[in-house]
Amino acid sequence: MAPRPSSYLIIGSGVFGASTAYHLIRRYPDASITLVDRDAFDATSRVAASWDWNKVVRADYADIKYCELALEAQDVWRTDPLWKPFFHQSGIYWISHTQFAQKVIDNYAKLGRRADLYSLPVEEARKLYGGIFDEADYTDVKEVLINNTSGWADASDALKKVIETSIEKGVKYVVAEVKALKVDDHGICHGVTTADGNILEATHTILSTGSFTTKLLEASAKVSGVKDLRAGDRIISAGVTTGLTRLSDEDLGKFSRMPVCIQENPPERGASNGTLPPNRDSQVKWWGQCIFKNTQEVLKDRFVSAPPDEPDYAEWKVPGSLKDDVNFANKATFGEKGELWNLEQYRICWEALTPSEDFIISPHSAASQLYVATCGSFHGWKFFPILGKYVLQMLDGKLAPDLKGRWAWDRELPDPSDLVVWPRKELEDM
Ligand SMILES: Cc1cc2nc3c(=O)[nH]c(=O)nc-3n(C[C@H](O)[C@H](O)[C@H](O)COP(=O)(O)OP(=O)(O)OC[C@H]3O[C@@H](n4cnc5c(N)ncnc54)[C@H](O)[C@@H]3O)c2cc1C
């Protein structure tokens, strides 16, 4: 008998799922590839962390592997006609109190990459860009890192375009809420069941469900009886708040050529905060420094962190203290210059984080034909053009050993207690 042709069911159309669909259809134009998401890909608001006004696209990493991967992604952002229109090489301004600048400079050198990249003392840095960052908080900071080859991308526009292109090439897009994986008594995953009672089947089921992954695996473990489907300590759902302001024409004149600014925080203040240059609607965006979880009883006696139950993850219902967290980021970056700005469109963005900040791109060890490709760990978006390439390598069993180990479902997990991005507070305490 001829082997059954491969079919692919990708759950979640954020950057991990969309990139996988795009790379799959380019390689297998005749294959059955279905991308499933609870939200339409062109909806005006989505729950995906990948759906956003803009995202930072940098290669400034202390970890040389992610530096290398980010440079690979940037090469695509800069040159490929599909991705290029969305990339803006604004440069980046890093305010860091650690040895981060030197590590980045060393990594570029080790990788043999030349870039307009340097660090300079705070007093000189303050004068750059017309002095827009001269009132920033430089506590314990000696040098600022400038990388003029980093920048940002129009996030939701790029996501929509890549999905549209994949659909044109033959990917089917289905709007449905996935309830559980369909795993049989032999531990084989055949697809998923949806909230409207449908069954979607494929020979490969790939979970790219971001912050919802923990909850979906709990439900799937209950329905199938395969307890090891659960994520356990591998993944935590965590949230960060963003907010925007629309600049006046006068301010636009001063800030239109600003770089991305990222500010590392002392541990007692939280993780980093950052701001992105004005988008096409003249809006500047910030993210706050507070990272939090939302532990809930998802099934009887089963507690995991997951986004709120509402269909939109209650992402626009932002408590005052989290609005203040974003307002604080404005003050820490621009000082009095931003005092009169009206911040608006606050949003909580939910993400899947691992204790090592590594992604998971791996077969799931508890069920065959089931794969996991998600966990951007607050830095996954910039790799959008190349994520699918690595997911295909994983499906083929051809991931390089170092990446296979790093991104494995079963890997040694470090103690996250020192990790600055690890959530320590609960949403309900905000
Ligand atoms: C505030 C914030 C700022 C960030 N900034 C940056 C940045 O500047 N640069 C950068 O590189 N990275 C950044 N990141 C990280 C980046 O956004 C994420 O790593 C990346 O978007 C995760 O992609 P994903 O595909 O795994 O998940 P998501 O984008 O969250 O997509 C998951 C999708 O799965 C769908 N889904 C889930 N469960 C179900 C279900 N049961 N049924 C149907 N559909 C389902 C959801 O609807 C969603 O569309 C940031 C993250 C946050 C939270």
Write the layout of secondary structure elements.
Blueprint: E1 7-11, H1 15-27, E2 32-37, E3 54-57, H2 64-79, E4 87-88, E5 92-95, H3 100-110, E6 117-121, H4 122-125, E7 143-147, E8 151-154, H5 155-169, E9 172-175, E10 178-183, E11 189-194, E12 199-201, E13 204-207, H6 213-224, E14 236-246, H7 249-255, E15 260-263, E16 273-276, E17 283-287, E18 292-293, E19 295-299, E20 302-305, H8 320-334, E21 344-353, E22 360-363, E23 370-374, H9 384-395, H10 401-406, E24 425-426
Parallel strand pairs: 1-2, 1-13, 2-9, 5-15, 13-23, 18-24
Antiparallel strand pairs: 3-8, 4-8, 5-7, 6-7, 10-11, 11-12, 14-17, 14-21, 15-16, 16-17, 19-20, 22-23
Helix pairs in contact: 1-5, 1-9
The site of flavin-adenine dinucleotide (FAD) has 38 residues, from helix 1, strand 2, strand 3, strand 14 and strand 21.
